[in-house]
Design goal:
heterodimer, A: Helix Hairpins, 2 domains, eight-stranded mixed sheet, globular, B: alpha/beta, five-stranded mixed sheet, 8 helices, ATP_synth_F1_gsu_CS (chain B), membrane (chain B), ion transport (chain B), ATP synthesis (chain B)
């Protein structure tokens, strides 16, 4: 019994195959999904998606969206998604530092909110890279 | 537009040729290059005039051929993007359904069209469908507004439905379409327009020669809840436990906003593909017409040339025989 996972972004299909288990981060915390999970529709936060194939865990950085789980089919729709293995650790670290600097410089409510979002995205990418290695 | 210009050229050519006036031997056809002589019905048209027309038709043919190739290359680029974005709105339709027959008070019709012309009839079909939807949905208590994307639809709809237009966006294709830009646009629309149902009208790209005008319906969260209670496709929504957010309605609202921006993104990409495809076929038929026109003009040119040579010979020979006595 395996789950069929589909991760879609507006630009391309990032993942479309069977997995054993996933761990998804939502606004209200992380949820683990095993086969025969109850049907739910949930909002996905900017965070990491962990996928287990056999005994190996893969990470993917997700930038917010929705997920629908039902009938052993998981559909995740996000604004952007990157596989942990596709992210360059050096570059992710630099992006994180730039985002932190921007947050410190930001003034005005809108800039602070945008800088915060950018920071969370950069942090997620760094975590995705680190979680594998 | 190019084809109309070619047709006009053809009419100007045909008129002097069919006037039944006898050849006036005193008028030599070689010298006259002005239009007045031709319009007066002299059958001998100057070769210079025909040559000028051939040159302009040849230029038009080159231009339309080049436009066709440009459209073909642009089409290739956008087509892959459009196909990738198709997978995005399918889960939404599977979850929330696409019910164009929903009956709501406030309808907003989002018409997507191109900014540039010369692309066949796709903009006119979109506007026709929008007007049809407007008629269907306008009634005593219901109201129907337009949000227009693209210069062409704006030009057509401003003529008779000016008061119903809420927002109009143009010059969207300056930068290649990407999701962030469309998300901002969708946000803009949602903020400024009150709606119960949004109907997006666009041309779906089925193949390089087939564009189907389609409409996708996105419902506002309140209507979704109402319909969910009524049953049907949306009734299955209740079987899903909604998580991730304070309340169910907040999640539903985010969901419908996300749905709208995804559907808009796909609609804009498909419409852009249809536009390039329609432009390709329009420019192709235009080049072919120009080629036909050029063939006919070449025949006329040869006939004119031979006629002038014959006239000159006649003059010389008759002059010589008159001298001999």
């Amino acid at each position: 019994m395996t789950l069929n996972l589909c991760v879609l972004t507006p630009n391309r299909i990032v993942w479309d195959s069977e997995v054993k288990e996933i761990i998804l981060s939502t606004n209200s915390g992380q949820i683990g999904v095993l086969p025969n999970h109850a049907p739910i529709a949930t909002a996905v936060d900017i965070g990491i998606l962990r996928i287990r194939l056999k005994d190996q865990w893969l990470t993917m950085a997700l930038m917010g969206g929705f997920a629908r789980i039902g009938n052993n089919e998981i559909t995740v729709l996000v604004n952007d998604a990157e596989r942990g293995s596709d992210i360059d650790p050096q570059e992710a670290q630099e992006t994180l530092e730039i985002a932190e600097a921007n947050l410190r410089k930001a003034e005005g409510k809108r800039q602070i909110i945008e800088a915060n979002l950018a920071l969370r995205r950069a942090r997620t990418r760094v975590e995705a890279v680190n979680a594998i290695s | 537009m190019a084809m109309a210009a070619l047709r006009r050229e053809g009419r100007r050519m045909a008129a002097p040729l069919i006037t039944p006036h006898p050849i006036n031997p005193l008028r030599s056809s070689l010298a006259s290059s002005d239009r007045e002589h031709t319009l007066l019905g002299v059958r001998s048209i100057s070769t210079q005039v025909v040559r000028n027309r051939m040159k302009s038709v040849r230029n038009i043919q080159k231009i339309t051929k080049a436009m066709k190739m440009v459209a073909a290359s642009k089409l290739r680029a956008i087509q892959t993007k459009a196909e990738n974005s198709r997978g995005l709105w399918q889960p939404f339709t599977a979850l929330l359904g696409d019910t164009p027959s929903v009956d709501v008070k406030k309808n907003v019709i989002v018409t997507i069209s191109s900014d540039k012309g010369l692309c066949g009839g796709i903009n006119s079909t979109s506007v026709k469908i929008s007007r049809g939807l407007h008629k269907l949905n306008a009634g005593p208590e219901k109201e129907c507004k337009y949000v227009i994307l693209g210069e062409k639809a704006k030009a057509q709809l401003v003529r008779d439905s000016k008061k119903d237009i809420e927002l109009a966006f143009t010059e969207l294709q300056k930068n290649p379409l990407n999701y962030t830009q469309v998300a901002v646009l969708a946000d803009d629309i949602l903020k400024n327009v009150e709606y119960d149902a949004l109907r997006i009208v666009f041309n779906k790209f089925q193949s390089v020669v087939a564009f189907v005008p389609t409409t996708s319906t996105v419902l506002s969260p309140e209507v979704v809840e109402r319909e969910a209670e009524a049953g049907g496709k949306l009734g299955e929504l209740d079987s899903y436990e909604i998580e991730g957010g304070e309340t169910k309605s907040e999640v539903l609202q985010n969901l419908t906003e996300f749905q709208f921006s995804c559907v808009m993104f796909n609609a804009m990409l498909e419409n852009a593909c249809s536009e390039q495809g329609a432009r390709m076929s329009a420019m192709d038929s235009s080049s072919r017409n120009a080629g036909d026109m050029l063939d006919r003009l070449t025949l006329t040119y040869n006939r004119t040339r031979q006629a002038s040579i014959t006239t000159e010979l006649i003059e010389i020979i008759s002059g010589a025989s008159a001298l001999e006595g």
